[in-house]
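The data layer described in this paper is built around a simple, fixed record for each protein. Because each token names a local backbone shape, the row as a whole describes the fold. We quote a single record here, exactly as it is kept in our systems:

***
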Amino acid sequence: MTILKTTYSRLTGLFLAAVVLAGCSSTPEKKTIPESLTEAELYQTANQSLNNQSYTKAIDYLRALESRYPFGSFAEQAQLDLVYAYFMNVEPEAARAAADRFLRLHPQHPNADYAYYIKGLASNTAAMGLIERYLPLDNTKRDPGQARQSFNEFRELLTRYPDSKYAPDARQRMVALRNRLADYEIHAANYYMKRKAYVAAVNRGKYVVENMQKTPAVEPALGIIVEGYQRLGLTEPANEALDVLKLNFPNSKLLNDQGEFIGYQSFGDVDPSLLYTVSFGLLGDSGVEKQKAQTPVAPKPPEDEQ
């Protein structure tokens, strides 16, 4: 029996070693970039790689160009291209770091607005993993920290470069981000209402009404305020909020045909599906319109005239 155990252990060890060696042998060796390449040749190869969507190769050549020719004629453009390459290679943190470095080194560069623009895009996707990028998840239920950061960076772009060619797209993205942040507040308010924390729910609703006007979340926020005050037994502020709801949303689904408040029904809704349960509410039909989280497509950086 001892011999059999020893033999089994040896065979197991040999098998594991063979697996490790096979894995190592199947891993392609990283090709070194020839030292003989000139600055122009490095940049030409990197640019071709970007055009062919070979972003990893482009990153390697751009980094080699920057390290070998830090003061060359292509250095600034290579740094800007590197921001784009990292973003398109789904490395948002590296893209943000490269953008920050570019702005620190070239704060008055004519294409600095592009670096700010990519920072905003990268921040919006920094917290997304593989699942979030390719499955239809409801991002309004996720931590809004990255959305806030992205919103602030787009705002900085518009403040510094209001006439930038990236400004119109940044404004549209800010509207979407603001709606997303407002929806997050509604989800938080729903959470508090279901747990009978009415004061916290009302405060969330008031925050949306006071700070996120013109978003679709204002209507349900008013409904939260009305019902929260009603459940707290505060008739006067509840009626005041109801008057605001009737004035601004006369056809609201929260009102019946006679204009009476019928209650914010979604507080009792719970998705019974297994998919919704095991995914912590991120998947499945929860009564909220789902949106597919996709990496935004960024334009290539403009090239300086050499």
About this structure: Residues 167-194 form the longest helix (28 residues). Residues 36-171 form a domain with the Serine Threonine Protein Phosphatase 5, Tetratricopeptide repeat fold (CATH 1.25.40.10). Residues 114 and 301 are 7 Å apart (CA to CA). Confidence is low (pLDDT under 50) at residues 1-8, 19-29, 128-140, 268-294.
